[in-house]
Amino acid sequence: MQRSDVTRDDGTWLGLSLDVRDRHRPGLCVFTAGARLLVSQLARPVLLAVVDELLDGVDFWRTDAYRSLVPPLRADTARALAGSPERWAHRFARYLADSPAGPLHDGRWLLSYDSPLRRWRHADTSHAEYWGSMLLDGHPGGYIDWFIHSGSWEVLPLRPMPDADDSRVKAYRKQAREGTLPPVLLWWVSGLDCHVILDGHARYAAAVAESVEPPLLHLHRTVPRDDLVTRTEEAVGFYEAELARFAGLRAVHGPTVPDGAAITGPQLAHRLHDLNTAAQPTWAWPLPGGEERWRDIAREATADRNWP
Hints:
By secondary structure, the chain is of the alpha+beta class. 35% of the residues lie in helices and 24% in strands. The protein contains eight helices and 13 strands. It has helices spanning 75-81, 85-98, 127-134, 167-178, 201-210, 225-253, 261-277, 290-301; strands spanning 2-7, 13-20, 28-33, 36-41, 44-51, 57-62, 107-112, 141-145, 155-157, 184-189, 194-199, 216-221, 285-286. The strands form two sheets. The chain has a seven-stranded mixed beta sheet with strand order 1-2-7-12-10-11-9. It starts with a strand and ends in a 7-residue tail after the last helix. The relative contact order is 0.17.
């Protein structure tokens, strides 16, 4: 896997672009069977989901089989990397690349600390209230409400959230107060229209308990490398065509017409930036055996509770 830094227009660091090769199917894989989804990790069912007929949301069922791909993070490591999302991103990128149980597969990805979840909190809402409300309730089953919470602004834990008095949460609460809390790793899954927690359930709970903003690292697919050259050429072609259009207008109407650089230049920069940052839909694979196989897995995972 190749890593490269991604920056904003002003040059500030935004995240890491991950170019993954020779990993045709991930260990943490999304399968589909009609309106049904299965997330499995190394062939273990982790999450079952059914999109309702009116497309208003998704019923889900967690199996408690999920295992984090990140090893336990030591307190001295947290102190050493505190305040440096860039160094944390490189560390987590290594975990993602090395683990056979993660979601990475062939293509280009963005691992960024600039999660859209941060931008939706109102100033008069406490961090505890806001980040607590983002968590999806229900275990083992629950519902992702697309009608009320459309726009991917909910967080789905892949295992039960620990209580505030859990020993791990207590340790992380101290780090949250000190400002050394390691980031929570989120993965945006378009088929669920929400973010799932890949690592950091206890850290998220600690941030809510201390009413601080949890540090986040946000993972999603970006434009595939096969499309990158074509889309770059399209963006440059649009830029050149716009400059030519402004030049034609200047030839007719005189120098009072701008040359267009001040307008088309930022447009080009924005389009090129999006090629490295804009989220692309999550890949899913057809489930072998289709809906019948999905129902068999659901019956076994739910102990035949006639879910959903």
